[in-house]
């Protein structure tokens, strides 16, 4: 059994780290990590309009489960790095050349293993939280990835911030230099609401309070507001997905946050996560449990936030499958949705003002089924200038996709 396992891992490594043959050696054997989406399939994966550039299996990453993911572009070298959360830590992969990716190493969990980990990047540093007991926030200087001898390495954090214990997610507003862990201990002073941490100096975070008036905040987005409501131009606005409602809070003054408004919707399962359109007029919300509780297809609730004091529901979009929706992000006129067993869905939101959005592509990393269960894609990161899209699949590890 061990021999078979070792052979399997070796095969994965050969596939994941293969390179093209050198010039002048056309007869030498070569492989490619890229699998083109043709006639609805990229190998075993159902797809439409998006190719597979790379898949690195969990065995290579030394983990049994993947969760969150993010990305970093080195401003000095322009190299691109995928960052993927795992049950036992956080892995870093140089994906600049997906035909010759480099698994650089792993930052182990700060305390114990956990299925939940979340990562964001600011000023060339990764900030990592977890549901692991007493995990706090790890800060890792990503410029260390420029020169890693004999990868993969076991890394240590540059800073381990212990001003809180566990947290479900972390939000960063790069314009204000603040991080906001959310989903911390419900019995704490802020009842699981957002914590305010000044990260102007990334390696020396400073706690500056929090917001505990509303319900436990599962996830959030924080922006320096530039949207249509002139009353709040330039203010730092938090949109919290708070289990049974969406809350809008002015957190410009950390010592005196102000609740602006809140809104809910019909058939609430679990108000999970949402994202603004780029003009900050519409907010696209995902409910994580409605597919299981009510039997509907994947549902996105779109709110009109033209007036932050009086938000209103705009319309509801249903996807083509019954899979659960997880995290979604907007880049330009595309909404990138991590859709668990239905993979990643790519949705054109050009006509969102007219109550119309439509799916234009997908890549299903979990071909077994599209059921309402917690397998498949956890997260998608669509912000690399190269067009590479980072996808973390709970069961199958790291995927890199690109539009055709």
Structure report:
This protein has helices spanning 2-16, 58-61, 290-294; strands spanning 41-42, 45-48, 50-56, 66-73, 80-86, 89-94, 102-108, 117-122, 125-130, 137-141, 153-154, 159-161, 169-173, 178-182, 195-198, 206-210, 219-224, 236-241, 246-250, 258-263, 271-276, 282-287, 299-304, 312-318, 328-331, 334-338, 344-348, 358-363, 377-381, 389-393, 397-403. With 404 residues, it is mainly β. It is globular and about 55 Å long.
Key traits:
404 residues, mainly beta, six-stranded antiparallel beta sheet, five-stranded mixed beta sheet, 6% helix, globular, disordered N terminus
Q: Topology of this structure?
A:
Blueprint: H1 2-16, E1 41-42, E2 45-48, E3 50-56, H2 58-61, E4 66-73, E5 80-86, E6 89-94, E7 102-108, E8 117-122, E9 125-130, E10 137-141, E11 153-154, E12 159-161, E13 169-173, E14 178-182, E15 195-198, E16 206-210, E17 219-224, E18 236-241, E19 246-250, E20 258-263, E21 271-276, E22 282-287, H3 290-294, E23 299-304, E24 312-318, E25 328-331, E26 334-338, E27 344-348, E28 358-363, E29 377-381, E30 389-393, E31 397-403
Percent in helix: under 10%
Structural class: mainly beta
Which descriptor suits the 3D outline?
A: globular
Q: Rounded to an integer, what's the Rg over CA atoms?
A: 21 Å
Quaternary structure of the protein: single chain
Alpha-carbon distance between the two ends: 40 Å
